Structures are given as C-alpha cells and as structure tokens.
TrEMBL record:
<dbReference type="InterPro" id="IPR003787">
    <property type="entry name" value="Sulphur_relay_DsrE/F-like"/>
</dbReference>
<dbReference type="InterPro" id="IPR027396">
    <property type="entry name" value="DsrEFH-like"/>
</dbReference>
<dbReference type="Pfam" id="PF02635">
    <property type="entry name" value="DsrE"/>
</dbReference>
<protein>
    <submittedName>
        <fullName>Uncharacterized protein</fullName>
    </submittedName>
</protein>
Amino acid sequence: MKLGIILQSNKSEHAWNTFRLGITALKANHQVEIFLMSEGSELDTIPDTKDFDVSAKVAEFKELKGKIYACGTCLKVRGKEENKICPVATMSDLLKMIESSDKVLVFG
C-alpha cells in the first residue's frame, strides 16, 4: 500500500505521531510520503521534548527510505527556504501524491 500523509501542525506531539505512523508503515513494507503544509512546514524548528523526540523520528523515517516534501508557498509565507530535512514541493506535487496514494491521512 502507498500511504500519503499531510502534516499541518507544528506541535511536537502531532509531528511525533505522524512520523511514528510513517515508520510503522515503512517497517510493514508500505511506501510512505509525508507532505508538510501550513505550520507543518516548520518541521525543522519543532523542538524535541522529554516525551516527543521528533528529530529522532524524522531521522529514522528517512533511514527507512520514507519521503518528505515541504510546501514551497508555506515556507515562503514563513520567510523560510529549502531546509536540510526535505526538498521544496508544490501543489502539483501534493496532487500527484494524493492521486498515487492508496490512502491519504491528515495530521493537525
């Protein structure tokens, strides 16, 4: 199965759970793409907390060959550019992810 996940939150717990699900799906031999939109495009600045090790989950997700993309417009609105976590993407890229996914989930 191909799973498309849209993360629209910059809350540590939301991001943590998004990547936990992605990791679980990848370990079950599914394909997973995560698209960062709205506040989710701030992923590189979401702090780790005692309970939610977001950066460790992102690293594990990437090691398992999960794909992450960030909305370029959402980044621009926030005065940000491409970051080291993922490439910049467009609405057309999001549409392609949705069209090619068997299931699409939204967190946030």
